[in-house]
Each structure stands twice: as C-alpha cells, then as structure tokens.
Design a protein that fits this description.
CATH class: Mainly Alpha
Binding site for Na(+): 56, 63, 257, 322, 325-326
Number of strands: 2
InterPro entries: Na/ntran_symport (IPR000175), Na/ntran_symport_taurine (IPR002434), SNS_sf (IPR037272)
Number of domains: 1
Largest sheet: 2 strands, antiparallel
Keywords: Cell membrane, Disulfide bond, Glycoprotein, Membrane, Metal-binding, Phosphoprotein, Sodium, Symport, Transmembrane, Transmembrane helix, Transport
CATH architecture: Up-down Bundle
Strand order of the largest sheet: 1-2
Protein name: Transporter
Disulfide bonds: 162-171
Strand content: under 5%
Shape: globular
Number of helices: 22
Radius of gyration: 26 Å
Amino acid sequence: MSNKEKLLCLKDFHKDTLKPSPGKSPGTRPEDEADGKPPQREKWDSRIDFVLSVAGGFIGLGNVWRFPYLCYKNGGGAFLIPYFVFLFGGGLPVFFLEVVLGQFTSEGGITCWEKICPIFSGIGYASIVIVSLLNVYYIVILAWGVYYLFQSFQSQLPWALCHQPWNTETCVEDTYRKNMTLWMSLNSTNFTSPVTEFWERKVLSLSKGIDEVGELKWDLARVTLPGAAEGIKFYLYPDITRLGDPQRDCLLLGCLNSGTSFVSGFAIFSVLGFMAQEQGVDIADVAESGPGLAFIAYPKAVSMMPLPYFWAVLFFIMLLLLGLDSQFVEVEGQITSLVDLYPSFLRKGYRREIFIAVVCILSYLLGLTMVTHGGLYVFQLFDYYAASGVCLLWVAFFECVVVAWVYGADKFYDNIEEMIGYKPGPWMKWSWTVVTPLLCVGSFIFSLAKYTPLTYNKTYTYPDWAIGLGWVLALSSMVCIPMVVLFRVVRSDGSLINRIKSVAAPREVNRWAKDSEGSAPFVTTGSFKKPTHVIVETMM
C-alpha cells in the first residue's frame, strides 16, 4: 500500500471512529463510553485554530519588552544577523522537533520521551519544572497590567503629575526638562519622576531589599487569581489530521513570532523617540527592558501624548492579551504532561479539572510572594534564573542529541514521512544533528562566561543567599536530566552496557488492546502497527 493510500485510510478511520456523540465529549468513542474508558482528546476545529493557538503561546510579553530593547542595545539592524542565524539554526528546528515528537507519540512533554528513549525522560521533567516556575511569576505581570489598566480610566493619569498622596518631596515632573535653565539649576540626580514613584511607591510599595518582604499588596493579590481561573477553563487537545503540513506551519509560526517582535520594535521606539524629544534627552536615557519598559517608560510616554488615557488603556489591554494567551499555553503544557503520567486516574470524571484547580491554586499561593513589598525582588529572581536562557539551552541541546543521535535522525525522518506522506527538507535533520547542538553549546558556554550577578535598577545588589537561591531555581530543572539517567541505569539489571541499552531503547506500548487508553502501538522501529490518528501536543 502506498503512502498516499495509507493517509487516506487514516483519514477514513478518523472520520468513522471519532465522530462526537450528542451530549458527549468531542472525539469520545462509543465503545469507550460503554467500557467506562476516559474520553478521547479534543480536536482543533480547523487548521487556523491550531495556528492561532500556538501563535498566542509564542507571541508574548518578550516580543514587546525584550526584543526591541535587545535589538537597539546590540547594534540595531546588525542584531538581526545573529538573530536569524539562531532562529533558523536553533529556534525553528527545535520547535519543529517538539511538534513532530508530540504528533508521533500522541503524548505530553514527559511521556513522549518515555516512548522514544526512556533513559532521557528527564528532558520532559526539566521542561515541566521550567514551565511550573514560569507559571508562578508570569501571572504577576498580568496583575500589574490589570492594575494599570483600571488606573488608566481617568481623565488625568495618576502617574503623570506629582502632588499625589504617594509622591515624595523629591518628585519632579518631566515638564521641567523643557526649561533647561531651571532644570540645570536643580541637582537632577536627587529627583525622581512621578511615573517612577507611582510604580515603586503606589503599585509595589517597594521595600529596601529582598530581606524585607513586607506585607501583601492585597490590591494586586486579588488580581492574580482570575488568571488561575482562566487556566482552569483552558482545555484544548489538537488533532494533527486537521493540520496538513506541520513543517509549513512551524515555519509560518516562527516567522510570525519574529515579525511580531520586529514590528513591535517600530511601535515601541517610535513612542520612546517621541518621549525623548519631549524631554530633550537622548533616546538611550529612556530605553529600558522588561517591567521598566512596560510600567515606567511607556506609561510615561503616553502621559505626554494627546488623549493619554486612551493610549494607556489600549496599551495595557494589548499587554493583557499578549500575556493571557501565553499563560493559557503554559498552564496547558504543564497540566497535559502531568496528567499523561497517570492517565487512568486523572482522566476519569472531573479529576482532571480538580487537578488543574489544585495546580493553579498552588501557583497562585507561591506567586503571592511577588505581590508583597519586596515582591519585585522575588519576581526578578525568578525571571533571571528560573526560566533563564541557560536552562532552555540545556534542554534544547539534549532534545536534539536524543532525537538525532540516540533515537536516530534518519529513523525520525521515516516516522515523519509515515505521518505526513513525505520527508521534510534535509535542513531540519542537519540542524538536529550538528547545527543546533553546536549553537546551544556555544551559547551556553558564552552565557556562563559572561554571567553577572543580578541587580535591581543598577543600584541594589542581591545578597549572596538570594543569588544562591536563584541558582537553585536554575539547577532545579537542569539536574532532572542527569538524575533520571542515573536513576534508570541504577534500577535496571545486567552489566552497565546492557543496562544503558535496555533503558535507551524505545518502549513498546500496545495502546489498542482492550485495557488500553486509546493510542497507537509503538514499537522499537518507530512505526505504527495499525492505522490510527495522531495528535499534536505542543510541548513547552
């Protein structure tokens, strides 16, 4: 039977066996309902749903508050050269690998590695640790955004002028900069702007350091919980039979992500250029990255524009939308991977929803440390270490090595051909085998060589114990890979070589047996024994 005929069989099989029953979960098989089996995973309604959902997870706050600043700081247009080298040599190949691996195994971020190479299932655990830590602090950014959004519904923005209850005697409005004689007569280094005081004294009630955590900021703490509620509602499982061409989709999504970053740079620096001209300063004095851009520089800029409240509302709505859909994907990636570890228990009844609620509430409680008076210091600690580039490079390196060298790049390409009917171009295989691992190793070493301890606003230096805690957060994900390797080898029988061979071989799973949970038999050759539909799990 030709590959084309096989694909037609897959499509017919999918249509015949996965028709939703009235009043039942989409994709539930009648025989599963009769046997009391858990429902099948839900499907995308169309290809555009998949593209937009993944784009929502891809395009986040970093596109707005990190990429434009990094582009400006590292040579402007010249920065795009190394950026595109890493995009096509590292970013797109790793993304395509993860999507195809999820499609091939029909599993989440942990159990997919159990199937192709159990000894390296620590890759999945490392990814979930990173995502779990990310979920703790990412929602705090949305809390700040919601707070600013509600404060924007005023004719006079509260951060535009001094003389507010939270302002100090050192608060000086930026309009004084236009009067250069008056401004030069003042010792400007001793004065602060109203937008900075609103951020540090009103929103954060910032303490002197991470040692002084202080009380909870209840106005922010109440805002973070709705994000958890939205995470509970998010319950999406895609079906690859609706996608068509995963390689084209990955390329499209990667270019969409880069294009969004590039276009946002025009928007951000147009506004910052306007602000620099209004203040009579160089643009380098107003360009910032991270929370400083979103909650100090940009709010200051819109306060100088006509209809400032209108532009402020639009900006913070955009910020919320960018962050919220990314939060959805992060929560779903975490939940799917954990549920797939214990499917027979967590997929019954409402246990999955209860489990999601428990995970979200735990993340919320941990995130409360970031809405205290010293919360910004805790937030920066998580942002700088927990989901740092070093951790991501470590995971991406092992993903490529395991697929290309342990499992086999040629075998993986055969699996792709079996699923979509043809083999992708050779660039992806070359990238997984050589290019991406080399880029990851080079960037990893360079990042460690150029490492500088974390500071806040270039004035506050974190104590040694806080730096140590940050490295614990970073290593908590990285150690998962060697720990699982050691654990699997120690727990197996035989000589050392036989142990490694045993735990490195793909695991055989008969998922179409009567006691199975509804997926395809997976054998050591990397093929499917029976026609089946395949599912994408976009892994974090």
